[in-house]
Design brief:
This protein is of the alpha/beta class. Helix content is about 40%, strand content about 15%. Helix 2 crosses helix 6 and helix 4 packs parallel to helix 5.
Length: about 270
């Protein structure tokens, strides 16, 4: 799809994106603004978007780990006069520690932000999406296709998001609601969220620059692709799952997946996209 066609898909649309203050979210927000969209940027702080001045950029503060704040977010969006065409569930945090070293509070917060919040946001904004024949965009992860050591809670949430996207796709089709869905499962990105991660075969499993990832993400959404994994090696996981689990684990180990987080330092104890 040509860049002009991608831009046309977003021009005039109202896009709500969570985690907008982080590296990936801010890049996505800026690209959407350049494409002519109105961006409702949601995060606990403005982060990287703080210096940005644009009449089509509107910031909403929300702690996504709190269900009542998500409900108030919808009220604030309505009060401001907006109706959401595209909902991008992008926010996420990473603990990056072995499960036995992760506190119950940290696990609960990660699951709240990475899994519960996207579900609650869809529930709050489903009427907008239905009215506008809108689009739900779910940023899952390659860790939502294959489990990774030191990402147990993160993988659990991302696997859950993958299932949630599928369930909503068939639910909306059954109920006659014309809402498009796209689930995106990128490999590691070069952001502070995954600082220190490694890849054994960078040509086959490259750690992608976020700018390139955003370009691919927005093109996939504009094409209304139902599923995007970017890399063939990530896509091939579906084939590998046809084989015995022992073979699947061998291949995963051979490609260094379970050692990829060994040098992770992240951004604090809960790194943000």
């Amino acid at each position: 799809m040509r860049s002009a066609e991608v831009k046309n898909y977003y021009t005039g649309k109202c896009v709500l994106i969570t985690g907008a203050g982080g590296a990936l979210g801010s890049l996505m927000s800026n690209a959407l603004l350049q494409a002519g969209a109105t961006v409702l940027a949601v995060d606990i702080t403005e982060g990287a978007l703080a210096p940005k001045k644009d009449e089509n950029l509107h910031f909403f503060t929300c702690d996504l780990s709190q269900a009542e704040q998500i409900a108030r977010l919808e009220e604030a969006v309505k009060k401001a006069g907006f109706s959401v065409d595209i909902l991008v569930n992008n926010a996420g945090i990473v603990n990056g520690t072995y499960l036995s070293d992760t506190s119950p509070e940290a696990i609960q917060k990660a699951l709240s932000i990475n899994l519960a919040a996207p579900i609650l946001l869809v529930r709050q904004f489903e009427r907008d999406l239905e009215k506008n024949n809108g689009h739900l965009v779910t940023i899952s992860s390659a860790a939502g296709i294959v489990g990774v050591s030191r990402l147990s809670d993160y993988s659990a949430a991302k696997f859950g998001l993958f299932g949630f996207d599928e369930a909503m796709r068939v639910e909306w089709k059954k109920r006659g609601k014309k809402i498009a869905t796209t689930v995106i499962c990128p490999f590691y990105l070069q952001t502070d969220m995954f600082k220190g991660v490694t890849t054994r075969f960078p040509l086959l499993l490259p750690i992608m620059k976020p700018e390139k990832a955003v370009k691919k993400m927005l093109a996939s959404v504009a094409k209304k692709k139902k599923r995007e994994t970017f890399l063939f090696m990530v896509w091939s996981v579906w084939i590998l799952r046809l084989f015995p689990v022992s073979f699947f684990d061998f291949v995963s180990s051979f490609f260094g997946i379970n050692k990829s987080m060994d040098e992770f330092v992240g951004k604090g104890t809960a790194a943000k996209k």
